[in-house]
Amino acid sequence: MKLKKFLAVTAAAVLTMSAIATSALAAGSKSGAIRAKEDAGHSDHYVVFEPNTRAKWKDNAAKAENTAAHAAIDKVNAGGSMADFIAATGVSGLDNKKFVTTFYDLDRTGEDVTKNAAGQYLPTLIVDALTSGLKGVLFVHYSWDRNVWEVVTPDKVDLAAKEITVALDDCSPFAIVADASSAAEPTKAPSGNGGGVSPKTGASSNWMVWGFAAVALAGAALVTSRKRAK
Length: 230
Known about the structure:
alpha+beta; six-stranded antiparallel β-sheet; four-stranded antiparallel β-sheet; 19% strand
């Protein structure tokens, strides 16, 4: 009987860990190197994820109209040059520019977020790579919905606070660039991931903590069961 109880409790713990891990994967891995500033006064908020970690990203990337853009994004995230990116995409306005960041995944939790008078999304992002001395900072954005590349001049760049505010028609993959003479090389993505190497936060970073808690709970239940049996 004791063995059966132990196996039952352990199985429950394992199922709990599995469910938590699955939930974390569906939510994606939040970025640590780039994060959205709190959207005060709104019920929803912007969020930045590591690329290739969400089902939404993968579904959009798999669409025929997006595959070329996604390949260009992956190449940049693996260390590709600006020249390679321009050759692959035909994006203009990036001559003498260098990537300050690789590409990340911008989204929102709902529609009640900060917008400008034209109804465009207006996220403010905190970017660790925005250092003093950067010049000509631009926002390179690919729209999954409209299948177009955009080079957007930010509404505001505060290098001291490491913040950038930009108006967008939709929330999709983006990277930040600056004058090549003022920008250092961006951190390369790890092999096979296609994303940045910044630390991951949020649900995906703590599911293991909850998993271990489930195992600990299983152990506690077993001890209690033994005590009652005595």
